[in-house]
Design a protein that fits this description.
This protein has 734 residues and is α/β, with parallel strands linked by helices. 38% of the residues lie in helices and 14% in strands. The protein is built from 27 helices and 22 strands. The strands form three sheets. An eight-stranded mixed sheet has the order 3-2-1-4-7-6-8-5, with helices on both faces. The protein has a seven-stranded parallel sheet with strand order 11-10-9-12-13-14-15, sandwiched between helices. The termini are far apart.
């Protein structure tokens, strides 16, 4: 029997689950079992847990349906546990280093106890010092093990379930479990306090609780706040049935009603019709269960107790309104340049939203490209009643396809359509001054699968952080998103970490990649002719990523020498990062510069193989199931400077070359297209090409622009059933 069972519910936190599991497995004390509780097998969190179970026998995944909620997940873990003591850890929290050693040592000092309460840290999600709210409560507790009557204010009502270690036989012997629904910690903690006979405390931080940027789920408005009274009533009824003396029940009563009054004093938490009913029911419970000799607290809280006891809702409401700080909703002032432009934009914001207007933008106005362009094209087919306007910089307006309506960024029409559009679609972000109007729908399509660190995850990499501007402003832009598009489950999890917000994930695939399943051999031949690729040659697309520590573009490779060494039939399509796109197309012999070509997807279709370093183009190109070679001459520098989400060297999409000689060799001897390369690519595609089946744009248009329910959308076609666009010629090398 292990010393500890650590139960980790994971619903809704798949993106951070690995951090929680790593914090447990990194503990110096190893006598434990780790029970991640996940949704059904095959879900993102379940896949993460399965990976850990395959690597460490102490990890045993447990499954609980999402409908069972947090309480159901914890109870499922409790039933599966075999350890002497149980610890609970939310899937987005972590165990502090040395936590299990400290808990074990403390239990050795105190002997067997029913509950060991411990301190915890509440860590601000971004900035600020962590707080230790449990420290004052536990400071006055006896030094050794004690009976609850010796320190009646130490209860589980004021402590989360994950701020304690519980003796498993104590919980099972009293059939203690988490009550269903909301406020399950208060209900469980109160009942544990009533049943416990020996308690101890550990004055050391065991859990680091990361506060969510979106705030606690329990603080959101809704009818679920009435369940707080259900939890309080259950605890108080149990106290009466057990004839708990007033010396113990008094502090428990006060702590429960502190939570009740806190909800009653925040009218936004409850819908209007429920506020009076909540107060009246709370008043009845107060009068029914108030312990004999109970002394009300002093000050304003004491006044609230008196009004609650009297059922005086009108007076309580007046006191509540008087105590609340008057604060007007802060309206974000639009800040386009120029006073006349600001006034014009404000005037447009006062006009009604046009329900049939959609605005698109790609790469900060660089042209008609990427996911916004693919959605725009599909919308013209499926939702012709939606008028579409593409935003573009003045010097790129001439690159737009014929018939695409556009507005030049910064113009009066630009601000007018931004103010009045119902739908706003972008693969980056709209300008800082753009206001998110009620009733508008913002769709963030992204423009790549994240290998490198993104968003707030960049903060610990000084070179990148310095160039990223204000992370606070970034998150203000994230708050405008209603939907965020994802090409694979990896992306979904990383976006959740990098861009914390309340948007909905659309796991539909990238619309720009639809063409990889729909293009024909004739399309491929036409594109190669347009790019100037000679017949009978092997076109190698070379697409290096941007280096944050460099200024200007450097190929990082002598491409002429590569062609000479790789073979007589090799030509290189050079596509630099879009930061270096100057709208120029050029070709010199066997090197064809396609950086200025408007469509990355067409360039990929023309290529027989891809060579890249760490660019996200590899994830898109993998949909074509054509050879990929990773040229990683500075991987160590890149990971230290830019940061990455996974070790590409451990799971590449094909052969890895560290030097120009190695790169030339894999093409010269044909190993870039070998069986081993195919095997690596298959594993890579299974991991990162899950949703790109050729119908991503259709799903986005139907869900967002046409408002169709998710269940009515075309299901994602399995990877094994897809037929990628054909390459120009079979890859046979001598």
């Amino acid at each position: 029997m292990p010393r500890f069972s650590i139960i980790v519910p994971s619903h809704g936190v798949a993106g951070r689950l690995s951090l929680a599991l790593d914090s447990v497995l990194a503990q110096s004390f190893g006598d434990f079992e780790l029970l991640p509780v996940c949704d059904a097998p095959g879900t993102p969190a379940a896949d993460v847990a399965a990976g850990y179970a395959a690597r460490d026998p102490r990890v045993t995944p447990v499954h609980s349906p999402p409908s069972a909620g947090l309480a159901g997940a914890r109870n499922a873990g409790l039933r599966a546990a075999t350890g002497a003591y149980l610890l609970f850890l939310d899937g987005d929290d972590t165990l502090a280093p040395g936590a299990l050693t400290a808990v074990d040592a403390r239990l050795a000092e105190t002997g067997e106890v029913d509950v060991l309460y411990a301190e915890h840290e509440r860590c601000p999600w971004w900035e600020g010092e962590p707080a230790n709210p449990a420290a004052p409560l536990l400071a006055g507790a006896p030094r050794g093990a004690f009976a609850p009557a010796e320190a009646p204010r130490v209860t589980g009502v004021e402590l989360p379930a994950w701020s304690a270690a519980y003796r498993r036989s104590f919980l099972t012997g009293h059939r203690l479990a988490f009550p269903d629904g909301h406020f399950t910690d208060i209900g469980f903690g109160g009942l544990v306090t009533l049943r416990a006979e020996r308690i101890a405390v550990l004055r050391r931080v065991v859990v680091r609780h990361r506060l969510r940027r979106q705030g606690g789920r329990l603080n959101l408005p809704g009818e679920h706040h009435t369940e707080l009274l259900d939890r309080a009533e259950a605890v108080l009824t149990a106290a009466a049935e057990l004839s708990v003396p007033a010396g113990r029940s008094g502090p428990l009563f006060e702590q429960l009603f502190a939570a009740v009054l806190k909800t009653a004093a925040h009218p936004a938490r409850l819908p209007g019709p429920l506020r009076r009913a909540f107060f009246r029911r709370a008043a009845r419970l107060y009068r029914l269960h108030r312990p004999a000799g109970f002394r009300r607290p002093g000050g304003s809280m004491g006044v609230q107790h008196r009004l609650l006891a009297a059922g005086a809702y009108t007076a309580f409401r007046a006191l509540r309104d008087a105590n609340r700080t008057a604060s007007a909703a802060v309206r974000r002032v639009p800040r386009p340049r120029g006073l006349r432009t600001r006034l014009y934009y404000r005037m447009q914001l006062r006009r009604r939203i046009d329900p049939n207007l959609a605005v698109y933008c790609a790469y900060w106005g660089r042209g008609y490209a990427c996911n916004p362009a693919a959605i725009h094209a599909k919308a013209a087919e499926l939702a012709p009643h939606i008028r579409s306007v593409f935003l573009v910089e003045a010097d790129r307006a001439h690159t737009l396809p014929e018939g695409v309506d556009h507005a030049v960024i910064g113009s009066r029409r630009y601000w007018r359509v931004l103010a009045r559009a119902r739908y706003l679609v972008n693969n980056a972000n709209f300008a800082e001054g753009v206001v998110k109007r009620a009733g508008s729908v913002h769709v963030q399509t992204q423009h790549g699968t994240p290998l490198k660190k993104m968003g707030v995850d960049q903060s610990t990499y000084p070179v990148v952080a310095a160039a990223s501007g204000s992370f606070t402003k970034l998150l203000g832009r994230v708050d405008r998103w209603d939907f965020n598009l994802s090409a694979n489950t990896h992306s979904t999890q990383m976006w959740e970490r990098a861009f914390p917000g309340s948007y909905e994930h659309l796991e539909y695939g990238y619309p720009r990649n639809d063409v990889f399943c729909t293009a024909t051999a004739e399309d491929v031949a036409r594109i190669r002719r347009e790019l100037g690729v000679p017949d009978g040659t092997t076109a190698v697309l070379y697409a290096p990523t941007h280096r944050d520590w460099r200024t200007g573009f450097d190929t990082g490779l002598d491409l002429e020498a590569f062609c000479e060494a790789a073979g007589d039939d090799v030509v290189v399509l050079l596509r630099a990062h879009y930061f270096y796109d100057r709208g120029v197309r050029a070709g010199t012999g066997r090197i064809i510069d396609v950086t200025g070509h408007p469509s990355t997807e067409e360039v990929c279709l023309a290529a027989d193989a891809l060579v890249t370093d760490y660019s996200s183009i590899m994830f898109d190109y993998a949909n074509l199931d054509r050879p990929i070679v990773v040229y990683a001459d500075d991987w160590d520098v890149y990971t230290e400077t830019r940061g990455v989400y996974f070790d590409l060297m451990a799971a590449p999409p094909g052969p890895v070359a560290r030097t120009p000689r190695e790169l030339a060799r894999v093409f010269r001897d044909g190993s870039y297209a070998s069986a081993g390369s195919t095997e690596l690519r298959a594993a890579f595609r299974a991991r990162f090409c899950g949703f790109d089946d050729g119908r991503a744009a259709e799903r986005v248009v139907r869900r967002v622009l046409l408002g169709e329910p998710a269940e009515a959308l075309p299901p994602v076609r399995p990877l094994t059933e897809r037929v990628p666009a054909p390459a120009a010629s079979p890859l046979v090398r001598s």
